Request: fold
Amino acid sequence: MRAIQVRKTGGPEVLEFVEDLSAPEPKANEAVIKLSASGVNFIDVYQREGRYKVVLPYVPGQEGAGVVNAVGPGVTTVRNGDRVAWAGSLGSYAEYAAVPVERLVPIPGGVTDQQGAAAMLQGMTAHYLSHSAYPLKKGETVLVHAAAGGVGLLLTQMAHNIGACVIATVSTEEKAKLAREAGADDIILYAQQDFEEETKRLTGGNGVDVVYDSVGKTTFEKGLNVLRPRGYMILYGGSSGPVPPFDLITLSTKGSLFVTRPMLAHYTAARDELLMRAEAVFGMIASGKLKLRIEHTYPLPEAQRAHRDLEARKTSGKLLLMT
Ligand code: NDP
Reply:
């Protein structure tokens, strides 16, 4: 089959396109999916670089959608021909992927395969961040970093739909426009403006209830300074690099703050919770409450270009590889 393979960690050049990889056979409790589309996510970059460890060689990609092509022994929950999507199982940058059936969710009518692949990882992330890691309430004020990114645009919409006031950081005017369309009330161009000063000004010195930070190294510390007393820092990524170690006493001196470093896997570990989140996200898409921005689709052999674009901060919204 055609696939992308990584045989050593490194830059985008280690994403090798191969045409003669053996298609996976389904093991017990697995299904093999013929992919329509595979989602590109920042975690794919961390794994490619070696920041997150994966046994080499491997086929990258954590997210996809397509049709069940074969099922392994003991599988009764899906059948050949079912349309399914998943997040959190490695190997989607390929024509076929073997996925544990407990990770698969049905794609409802009214949602396309492309939307299915685009919504699973970033959509469920935006959902757990806004509904579970810190369940937002109407009238609260939030700071969303990288608000025009894949997760950022979805998180901004969900926070806006809940009735929260969203302060969004983005690097360019084009991204500012997209964040505003997604429902951001105020925009900070954090490459030019000091977001700490601006956020304090916008909140009249009160600070925000919660910061959703996926940028990490360059934003974390200042983010603590813009929280109200007993506010919540949800650090969910490190697109600019990992946050260096810090002294927990800082949390008390800055106002008895809370910090969490959540992962989607822990908010979709139970089958019930996975289905609840996927259904909620697909429901929002089908009803038009959540707009997916599929910014770019790349043919599978162009995975390197997709990674370069993502890392260069050129993208806003979702990137898909067409398998
Ligand atoms: P994005 O589309 O958000 O891309 C990353 C964005 O981060 C860029 O577009 C850019 O926006 C911003 N950024 C700021 N500084 C840098 C930098 N130095 N290099 C690159 N980008 C930078 O990616 P995703 O939506 O795929 O992922 C967003 C983040 O969420 C990632 O950190 C990812 O790891 C994390 N994540 C975490 C999950 C979890 O459960 N913990 C699950 C899913 C994603 P701008 O130009 O506006 O600054």
About this structure: The chain has a mean pLDDT of 97. Residues 113-133 form the longest helix (21 residues). The first strand starts at residue 3 and ends at 5.
